[in-house]
Amino acid sequence: MKLEKYSFGTGDRFGHQGKAQLDAMKKAKEAGVEIAIVWNKSHREHLIVGTSPDDVRKEADEAVSSSNWSGAYYVDADHIGLSNVDDFLESSDFFTLDVADFIGEKADENEIEAFVEKYSEYCGQLLIDGITTPLEVTVEKIRKIAEKYLVAVNQAAKIYQYIETRKGRDNFVTEVSMDETAEPQTPEELLFILAALGDKAVPVQTIAPKFTGRFNKGVDYQGDVEQFNREFNDDVCVIKYSVSAFNLPANLKLSVHSGSDKFSIYRGIRKAIEQHNAGVHVKTAGTSWLEELIGLAESGERSLELVKDIYERAYSRFDELCAPYSDVIDIDRNLLPSSDEFRKWNGLQVANSIRHDATCSDYDLNVRQLLHVGYKVAAEFGETYLQALKDHNDIVGKHVCNNLFDKHITPLFL
Fold first, then answer.
1. How confident is the model at residue 285 (pLDDT cuts 50, 70, 90)?
2. Is pLDDT of 19 > 90?
3. 92 close to 76: Cβ distance less than 8 angstroms
4. How far apart are CA 252 and CA 2, in angstroms?
């Protein structure tokens, strides 16, 4: 199973936006760009919403069938490990192996020594096409990389092998995720991580490193954009080099996690993939859930009151909802409107506070982030929330589709 050059991870918290998300990919195809759609949902999200991996497969298949979609599509077991992969084996054909928790755990000394000896031939100034300055490789650097990452790579290999024994080789796409860690990986680190994955015969088709800057949920990139652009470009070049050097899949590409709404770095990503004829995978989980709230707010009456009810509960349960996402949100609690104040707003004001448009005076990134992590509250409304989505399917679906196509796909690919 070979992942296409361009692919988009479209999270869908409540499983009602599959067709609208696919419509965005259809618009891209009509504009001349083929993008594989990957419906992704993590174990944590399933627990919170009360869904199962089978629900995602059903949503994907039904969306494809009803839309007469002839392009590629996948169902991603997002951020899984050995403890929870079993639930996803039957329904998923894309597995994101999350091994970030194993970074920094030191491997056996003999394994480290063997790795250093094998790759010491790369010591010196390593010229990689497309990177302006040579990589400086030393024995000590290789040793530190091995000490920091070999256990994580070994864990990725264990998960991959476990899946392979149950699904069969070449019947799924493998992604390795190392982004949920404190420090970004340097090009040198990425190079030898890929070497280690090649040693372990993990046919990784996409890898998610940690980049410089903050990739907070649902808001723009925070950091030095030019530095990110250099890192992304250099990582693309390292991947291209590693494919031939370490016998990795020819279609190996970078994956940008929490890629939704990172408007300021889209230009740099596009420049790099065009310049080097490279692919990219972008994950946008959570974006569609916020578009649902925008559509419901604009619909007025009871659906608007439902959005206000969700905000009120989220506001009162701030600590509980934010704790699991503390590393990927920055909310100034003192700047959040009170529940009483939020209730006074009309539908357009509520929608504008959530909609990611920094030029709008009503936009409130604190409100947006709180609601982004507050989907647990909507899940607790159960059928009341789901029925609202059904009742206002047209306006909600329009927002979901347009958001993906206009704000994400167009600046990245068109």
1. confident
2. yes
3. yes
4. 10
pLDDT digits (tens, 9 = 90+) for 287-329: 999 999 999 999 999 999 999 999 999 999 999 999 999 989 9
Whether 75 and 39 have beta carbons less than 8 Å apart is answered as yes
Best CA proximity match to 292, nearest among 383, 219, 396:
396
- Of the candidates 382, 400, 404, 410, the one whose C-alpha atom is nearest the C-alpha of residue 298 is 400
Which contiguous run of DSSP H or E holds residue 154?
Answer: helix 139-167
Which residues share a beta bridge with 206?
A: 175, 253
User: Quick check: 180 pLDDT over 90?
Assistant: no
Distance CA 290, CA 98 (A): 25
Domains of the chain: 6-285 (3.20.20.70), 290-397 (no CATH)
Q: What per-residue confidence (pLDDT) applies to 229?
A: 97
Q: Residue 37: name the closest of 406, 404, 379 by CA.
A: 404
Question: H or E element: which one contains 351?
Answer: helix 347-354
Q: How far apart are alpha carbons 407 and 262 in whole angstroms?
A: 10
Q: Which residues pair with 283 in a beta bridge?
A: 9
pLDDT, one tens digit per residue, over 353-395 is 999 999 999 999 999 999 999 999 999 999 999 999 999 999 9
In 3D space, the residue among 279, 278, 191 whose CA is nearest the CA of residue 242 turns out to be 191
Q: Is the pLDDT of residue 273 over 90?
A: yes
- Residues 6 or more apart whose Cβ sits within 8 Å of residue 222: 213, 214, 216, 330
Q: Whose CA is closest to 15, among 385, 409, 398?
A: 385
Judge whether residue 182 has pLDDT over 90: no
Q: How many CB atoms lie within 10 A of CB 280?
A: 22
CA distance 270 to 277: 10
Q: What are phi and psi of 69, to 5 degrees?
A: -80, 125
Residues forming beta bridges with residue 97, ordered by sequence position: 80, 176
Phi, psi at residue 17, to the nearest 5°? Answer: -110, 15
Q: What is the Cα 322 distance to its own chain's centre? A: 19
Taking CA atoms, 146 is separated from 98, 110, 153, 190, in Å, by: 18, 11, 10, 11
Query: What is the rounded distance in angstroms from the CA atom of residue 198 to the CA atom of residue 206?
Result: 13
Q: What are the DSSP calls for 375-411, one per residue? A: HHHHHHTTHHHHHHHHHTHHHHHHHHHHIIIIIIIHH
